Amino acid sequence: MTATRSGPLKGVLRAPGDKSISHRALILGALASGVTEVEGLLEGEDVKRTAAAMAAFGAEVERLGEGRWRVVGKGGFSEPADVVDCGNAGTGVRLIMGAAAGFAMSATFTGDASLRGRPMMRVLKPLGEMGATWMCRAGGRLPLTLQGGLLKHVAYRLPEPSAQVKSAVLLAGLHANGGAEVIEPEATRDHTERMLRAFGAEVDVHEHGPERHIILPGGQKLNGIKVVVPGDPSSAAFPLVAALITPGSEVTVEGMLLNPLRIGLLETLGDMGADLSVTNVREEGGETVADVTARHSQLVGVDVPPERAPSMIDEYPILAVAAAFADGPTAMRGIGEMRVKESDRIALMAAGLTACGVAVEEGPDSLTVVGAVRANHGVKGGARVTTHGDHRIAMSHLILGLASDEPVAVDEPGMIATSFPGFFDLMRSLGAEISA
User: Fold this and answer.
1) Which of 264, 310, 343, 347 could form a disulfide with 188 if both were Cys (CB 3.0 to 4.6 A apart)?
2) CB atoms within 10 A of CB 303
3) Closest C-alpha to 193, from 166, 172, 218, 220
């Protein structure tokens, strides 16, 4: 796919359902007793893999219509008859392994080439401390066979911020003797804690200085509920940044999630001088949502506080694109987690931006983008970017192409459907020039 310099982007849209909440709604619905009805579920490939996995573990999973799903849980998991293929869903497989560890059964997990290359030891380590065992490839990589059951209590301190690891431990703790406790040096997205409460579980959160202690007592049962999934801020970031960097643009995203632990990108764009307005703030399904409008802006480079990384780790690729159109350097530090996502996102963003004429400096856990917008100097573009099958790398460079001097092409655009089905049609509806 190729993106070409476009005229003003205009329109109102709703971002696809939040991926993190969609995964959790399906998993908790399968663990619960009774019916869970979900509205606004993200119907990307990653979430569909989680839906299929929940059926494999014994839940009844049915699609009722666009974004409307029903899960009938049996109060726990049963042993799957076949290998559970999670495709490219890193969040899905890590959370499902945590949930499955609580039951006396064996389950084998695999995924696509990208997921089989991603490390699982960060999840396996605490599950092992609770009593689960496994067999896998070197480095804790898929395919992996997990044996669960007879788990014991753990008080696990996260060695690095990770909502996936926290969530896996809490889901395992539902069926561990004595439950589980997770200690976070830095707060990460708290959708699992919020949703566990919505399903009827007791979850206590205590602040001890900068640390958060999340305590889940054992022996709890979940009951099916109705879940309304808000718009994903990680997906909304793409049309919003497109509007900020494309002259004359004004785009509104309705129903966007504004969880305080997910708004790091909005805060950073605000620091850069972005013309953003937030209206119609409301509560839906236990989460704060609002309508967010972005207008073309003259951005300036900033130093992004490292402690903000957990709240926007998936948004750094598109932030790097915004930074390319800013005046001055934007330094992003403490982002080493980006190297173990679907790809090494630091390396791929550095390579792609460099190919498009943007000056960058890459470090082990940092990326500095030197904004190209000066008096008579814009972003050149003109590259064909290798994405290594990473949906966020692909979308970020296509957004770059909408405002660069020369077209920008990406390979493997089909992977965009993992998180943002309908991305191309939505962007074209705003006036974006993106074609095959």
Assistant:
1) 310
2) 12
3) 166
Residue 112, phi then psi, degrees to nearest 5: -75, 180
Note whether residue 96 is domain-resident.
Answer: yes
Q: Looking at residues 343-354, what average pLDDT do you find?
A: 96
Task: Specify the DSSP class assigned to residue 318.
Answer: H
Which entry of 314, 365, 405, 425 is annotated as an active-site residue?
A: 314
Burial bucket for residue 174 (CB in 10 Å: 0-12, 13-18, 19+): buried
Rounded to whole angstroms, the Cα distance separating 55 from 47 reads 13
Percent of the chain scoring above 90 in pLDDT = 89
Tokens representing residue 410 in the block: 């990406």
Examine the residue annotation and report whether 232 is marked as an active-site residue of this protein. Answer: no
Quick check: 376 pLDDT over 50?
no
On the 0-12 / 13-18 / 19+ scale of CB atoms within 10 A, 30 is: buried
Q: pLDDT category, 143, cuts 50, 70, 90? A: very high
Name which of 263, 355, 268, 364 is nearest 319 in CA terms.
268
Domains of the chain: total: 2
Residue 233 near residue 241, CB atoms below 8 Å = no
Q: Which two tokens stand for residue 210?
A: 């900068």
Task: State the pLDDT confidence band at 374, using cuts at 50, 70 and 90.
Answer: low
pTM (predicted TM-score) = 0.84
CATH for 430? 3.65.10.10
Instruction: Decide which of 204, 224, 244 is a domain's last residue.
Output: 224
Residues 6+ apart with CB under 8 A from 31: 73, 75, 76, 77, 99, 171, 174, 222
Going by pLDDT thresholds of 50, 70 and 90, the confidence category of residue 340 is confident
203 and 80 within one domain: yes
Classify residue 351: in a domain, yes or no: yes
What is the C-alpha separation between 377 and 281, in angstroms, rounded?
A: 38
> Residue type for 7, please?
G
Tell me the mean pLDDT in the region 38-46. Answer: 94
Do 282 and 405 belong to one domain? yes
Asked whether the predicted pLDDT for residue 375 surpasses 50, the reply is no
Q: What is the pLDDT of residue 210?
A: 83
Pure H helices in 227-329 = 233-245, 264-271, 316-324
Tens-digit pLDDT profile for residues 73-103? 999 999 999 999 999 999 999 999 999 999 9
